[in-house]
Design goal:
Layout (H helix, E strand, L loop, with lengths): L1 H6 L4 H22 L2 H9 L3 H30 L1 H24 L20 H31 L4 H32 L2 H21 L14 H13 L19 H4 L37 H39 L1 E2 L1 E2 L3 E2 L7 H26 L5 H32 L10 E4 L4 H25 L5 H29 L12 H25 L18
Parallel strand pairs: 1-4
Antiparallel strand pairs: 2-3
Length: about 550
């Protein structure tokens, strides 16, 4: 049996997990998600800014749910079962979305964009719509990052895992590109019901492929709540708050004999208090040398795990306002595209939702370029790799630059509107090509290619082994919070200013972008401080006091 287990895993499993399952899940999920704003505006008569806010909430839910999925995977079911169940739930959501598109009784009568005589959806129509979106979101959110953990667990070498995360990100984007162009085109030009049916088919095939590869997977075994061990450290340290700390290694409990070589018994500043949890006192250890009172004594390894999690929180928090501008940009860009000239030739009109594909193409291209050429070349020229913290830091700078470009392009769009006197005409098409939005979206993609794979790899390597599923979902949690922050920020600016009216042609989106530039610059400085204070403990060659953003 042990030999059988050791033969499982390896690169063969990635065909099922990444090429088959992940690509199908993302084809399906992004097929409806990318065009959600347009669907709400055109089929359910929702105002554009309100549709943007709804889409941001949906994005937030999809990116918060992976944390719940990760907790269930690590504590109870394992990554395989969570991914399988989530994929099935998303199938149910797609069935409901197909019904909302197919049955006229489940949506209000159509009306022209900008008309003041549009009928709002009924309560029943809203209930069915939100139920379908919620179910589809739950399935997508529960499967995406769980598949990342399951895929990484199939590989043994840290370098292979880091490469996997790069190609995981590439697969997500490549699948999203196809869905944001081909499927969105079907939805806009042919039929919403047909487009959603294609999403259902992609999801169904993905689930079938995933189940077919089960015998090859190296499945992780859940070991109870991973947070229990962390909580025990806090409780034990508080209970022993009056115990004097010792500098002798033998006064502390070591889970493994070699632990003392890698886990110091001293700590600076905030973490010194936690060492008390590992100090041996009378009655803590039984006759077999094992812990007799688990809520009164922990190993130094457990103390170190909690230290690592706490140390990562500041870096993790800096990611919230790194992604908040991107969340705002990706949603508002669709509403901008709706008001711009999207014709490609005389007969073809680019779907507004497909504008986001520029970000995906850019990030996918640069992820592959960085992984295969830029990073290896950098290492050959400098004799050292670009660290994960440096990659994240470069991503910060590029995202701030993209917001500055967005502000300048929006100023150009508003000038064109003013010159043509279109401010008071809701739904009017501005005589300005949609290509003007491309530069800012390309730059966002470059920034994403730096910081997203870097963050996933950083958390996976640095978090305790018992928290691996949660580690990969930490980026998703940041994205989810960022979408909620973006929703709150947009709503706050709407209340305090007149910059974001229902008709964006009479607003001042450029001012919003300049605010994001200033906030992003401040957030980057905060990240630099956090990165300078943090020391990576698990990744080879990460710690270097003289390198850029790292210490």
């Amino acid at each position: 049996m042990p030999d059988s287990m050791t033969r499982k895993g390896g690169f063969i499993t990635l065909f099922f997990i990444a090429a088959g399952t992940l690509s199908g899940v993302m084809l399906s999920g992004f097929g409806w998600l990318a065009n959600l704003i347009v669907y709400l505006v055109q089929e359910f008569n929702v105002e554009s800014i309100n549709a943007t806010q709804i889409a941001n909430v949906v994005h937030g839910c999809i990116n918060l749910l992976p944390i719940l999925g990760a907790i269930i995977a690590d504590s109870f079911l394992g990554s395989f079962h969570v991914a399988a169940i989530s994929s099935f739930i998303s199938l149910l959501g797609m069935i409901l979305l197909i019904l909302t598109a197919k049955l006229s009784s489940l949506k209000p009568p159509p009306c022209e964009i900008g008309s003041s005589f549009c009928r709002a959806p009924s309560k029943l129509q809203y209930v069915v719509l939100y139920l379908s979106i919620t179910t589809a979101s739950a399935g997508l959110g529960g499967s995406r990052y769980t598949l990342a953990t399951l895929g990484a667990n199939q590989l043994d070498k840290p370098k292979d895992k880091e490469t996997f995360f790069n190609w995981f990100f590439f697969t997500v984007n490549a699948s999203s590109i196809i869905s944001s162009t081909a499927i969105v085109y079907v939805e806009d030009s042919m039929s919403w019901a047909l487009g959603y049916t294609i999403c259902f088919a992609a999801n169904f095939i993905a689930l079938a492929v995933f189940l077919a590869g089960q015998r090859f997977y190296r499945c992780d075994k859940p070991q109870g709540s991973p947070f229990t061990g962390l909580l025990r450290v806090v409780v034990a340290a508080v209970r022993k708050r009056k115990v004097l700390l010792s500098s002798r290694s033998e006064d502390y409990y070591h889970e493994h004999c070699e632990t003392s070589k890698v886990m110091p018994v001293t700590a600076n500043g905030w973490f010194r208090f936690l060492n008390r949890a590992a100090m041996k006192t009378e009655g803590d250890i039984d006759s077999d040398g094992l812990i007799a009172r688990p809520w009164n004594l922990c190993s130094l390894e457990q103390v170190g795990n909690l230290r690592t999690v706490i140390s990562l929180v500041p870096i993790w928090s800096s990611g919230i306002f790194l992604i908040t501008p991107v969340a705002i940009q990706s949603s508002i860009a669709v509403t901008q595209a709706l008001s711009m000239d999207r014709h490609l030739g005389s007969n073809f009109k680019i779907p507004a939702a497909s504008i986001i594909v520029v970000i995906l193409v850019s990030s996918s291209f640069f992820v592959a370029l960085f992984d295969r050429f830029v990073f290896p070349t950098w290492q050959k020229l400098t004799g050292r790799p670009l660290t994960l913290l440096q990659r994240i830091g470069i991503g910060h700078v590029i995202i701030v630059l993209s917001m500055a470009i967005s502000a300048m392009v929006e100023s150009k769009r508003l000038k064109t509107i003013h010159d043509n006197k279109l401010e008071a005409l809701p739904g009017a098409i501005v005589p300005m090509q949609v290509w003007w939005l491309f530069p800012q979206l390309v730059v966002i993609g470059i920034g994403d290619a730096f910081h997203f794979p870097g963050q996933i790899a950083l958390y996976y390597h640095e978090f305790p082994a018992s928290l691996r599923s949660i580690a990969t979902a930490m980026v998703s949690l940041v994205v989810g919070i960022a979408f909620y922050v973006s929703t709150a920020l947009v709503e706050l600016i709407r209340r305090l200013t007149g910059w974001l009216p229902g008709n964006i042609n009479s607003g001042r989106l450029d001012n919003l972008y300049w605010i994001l530039v200033a906030a992003g610059a401040l957030n980057f400085m905060y990240f630099l401080v956090c990165a300078k204070l943090y020391k990576c403990r698990n990744i080879e060659k990460e710690v270097d006091a003289n390198s850029g953003f790292d210490t």
